[in-house]
Every structure is written in structure tokens, then in C-alpha cells.
Amino acid sequence: MEINAPRLMIAGTNSSCGKTTLTLALLQALKNRGADVASFKCGPDYIDPMFHSRVIGAQSRNIDLFFLTEVQARSSFARHAGALNVIEGVMGLYDGLSMDSDFASSYHVARTLSAPIVLMVNARGMALSAAAMARGYSDFRSPGLVRGVIFNNVSGALYPSLKAALERETGLKALGYLPPCPECALESRHLGLVTAAEVENLRGKLQILAARAEESLDMDGLTALMAEAPPLERPPAPQKREKTVRVAIARDRAFCFYYADNLELLEEMGAELVPFSPLSDAHLPEGVHGLLLGGGYPELYAERLAQNRALLGELKAAIQSGLPTIAECGGFMLLTRAIDQWPMAGLFPTQCRDAGTLRRFGYATLSAQEDSLLFEAGDTLPGHEFHRWDADDPGRGLSAQKPSGRAWRCAYASETLYAGYPHLAFMGHPKAARRFIDKCLERKLRNETIGY
Q: Is the dihedral of CA 234, 235, 237, 238 positive or negative?
């Protein structure tokens, strides 16, 4: 069945040009107008979708063409589309896996989803050069999908001249501008923006941004551009299984990096996700058959986590007893001997330290030589590393290889465990999720047999 899913992509000339600020301003303005709006983020980023979700009141989704095929990406988008849809790009418009291609770039996603592109140009300190930059980005690939331009960090007095120059020199439409807004700035740290839960008065900042959008963006032009996107094929709704296993999931300020589609897939396969907080809960939830420890910022809360000795001991004992466990990045760090000087669960005899720079950053394909919780020998699964804190021994249970060819050993893997720095994407490779759920079912049946 075909559906209309009006949409556009907010792409940028480069990282830090203002894409997230513009996306939040547009989302909040559309919500204030009463629109049913959905949002999506290109690439593997966890934090930007958290901000999107705070605005729209629903899960924002990642669309990542390293994790998904083009068919899977269109299916995921169509399945979660709203009446209006905003897709935030990643890095610069054509930045993908390598200098050799635009694969998995914002442009690749826009082409896959047939989404018109609005290019964000930070025009601070620029005049006619802003039009030249926009023309270069528009003409770089065929088909040229850039349909409009929004200027960042310009004044209302300068905008008419920029608009006239852009439309005269390029034929592209100027769709507004955002003036400098220091009171709405979002703080950053070593992995990018702070998380949405940490921003003081986020709701007030979003409303200021929405007011700026109504004043300085061509809101009617943007919604008209969305409507020009062609229909998409909506896939049939998945058949959800009865909830058969309970899976504890760490969710608090220290552990909050999860892909919505990963969790949705586990739920469709029969998992009831039971949240708990390693920061404040002394015990795991009762009667669980599996465990998810996602990424986040445990290094910021290491002292507090170290003080929760009851839970740390319970985690170690549960995993040693065979509780099926997926621990990614920050979740893996929680299971090591220590983060800096602060003692953690001690399941792995290695310590995590601040490396001072990103380690093994980027996409990698994981492959297995032996069977384990998520892998059969010979299986591969796409993943992504994004961390500055590193372990003395990050594990050797799997092989990882970047698209460039660089390879290394990573992670701890056993029949009931995956623990390592790479974040994994199940949505394009559901076999791994199925193996996890099957192992949780085995745990449940064993517990029932011996009378737990």
C-alpha cells in the first residue's frame, strides 16, 4: 500500500553548521502548529534523536545505510512516518564512509527516501560566497536534490541581500535564516552534545527556537516542499509475539544510548523490557531472563556507580550464572574492574581510562570465528564505536574491520554474553536479536524447571 509521507531533509555543509538547532526549531514550530510530526536522524548518533524525541513526544529513529539496506531504510521510514517528517542529516551533505564515495551520507539517505534537501549554510562572515557554496553543494551530484537553503548566524538586515543573491545566482530558493541565539545554545562535551535530560530549561529553549523559526523561516514554503515528496510503499505491520521473556534494561542518565528500532525489534520478538537504574537501584528487577546494558556516560557518574556495591555484585553474579547479557560500550565499562580509580562490577579484569581522544572511532563490521550469544561462526554484524574512554583490554572474542581495511580484535563473547565497545545494529540483521531472545527463553525454561 502506498502512503503519502511529506518529508524533507535538513542537511549541512559540514558538522557544527547548525543542523540540530534548525531541526529542533522546525520540529517545535510544527508541533506548536498542531502537526503530527515524526523525526529521523541520519547515521548512528544517539544524542540528537533524544532531543528530537523531547520535542515530538515520540521516538525519533535512526536511518543508517551502513546498518540497513536501501529497501530496509525505506521500509523503516514508511513504517514510522507521521503527517509531516523531518530528517536531520549527519556531518556534511556528501560525507559518507570514505573519501571515495558518498555511501551512507546524508545525500545517500535523501536519495534513498526521495526526500528534498534543505541545505543549512553557516553564513557568518560571508556575503556572495554563501551563494557560491550553496551552488557547489547543489551541483556536486546528479540528481541534485538540494531544493532550498537556510542561512545560519545572519541578521534580519543581511538576509534579504543573501536571499536575492542566492536566487539570482543559483536558482535555489531561500527558505529563511536563523539569527544568532546564544541563550539557546546546547552545551557540548567529549562525545558531542550533552544529553537532552541534562539541559536546564530545555523546554524554554525549544520554545525560543520555535518563536525564532516562526519569525525568520519560511514555514509555509518548508511544508509545501515536504508535500512534493513522492508516495512510499508502506510495509505490512509486523506480527507481534506474546510477551514471553522479561529483559532488564539499564535506563538512566549514565546509560541511555539505545537504538529505538533495536528495542522495538526485541519487543516484537516477545521481550518485555523492564527498566532499572544502575545509579539508584540496589537490585535487578525480579524474574528477568536477560539483560541489556546500553552505552552512555558512565565515566561522568563513576563515583556514584561505584558506591552501588549491591547492584554491581548482583550484576556480576547474574552474568556469571548465565543470564544472557548484551553490554555495549558504557555497559561494558560497568562490568570492568574499574573506571579510572572507581571500582565497578569486576566481571572483566581490565580497567577503563581516559585516552584523551576518540578510540577506534567509526563504523566497523564484526565477524565471529566461533559461536556465541549473538553470532554463529562466520556471521557478520555491523557496528559502530564512539568512545574516548578505553579499556586496557577491550576483549578478543570477535574481529572488527573498518571499511578502510583496518582490523582489530574486540569484545568478550560467550554462549550467554556479548560485552564490548562496539554498538550493534539488529534492525538490519534480526538473526542476532532472535538468538538473544532464544537464549533468554532457554534461561526462563531452565529457571522454571529447577523452581526458581
A: negative
Rg (CA), the chain: 23
Q: Give residue-wise pLDDT tens across range 397-409.
A: 999 999 889 999 9
Looking at the predicted structure, is the pLDDT value of residue 200 above 90? no
Q: Cell numbers of 3, please?
A: 502512503
Catalytically active residues, by annotation: 329
Assess whether pLDDT exceeds 80 at residue 245.
Answer: yes
Q: For the residues 232-241, what does the mean pLDDT come to? A: 82
State the pTM of this model: 0.94
- Residue 407 C-alpha cell reads as 582490523
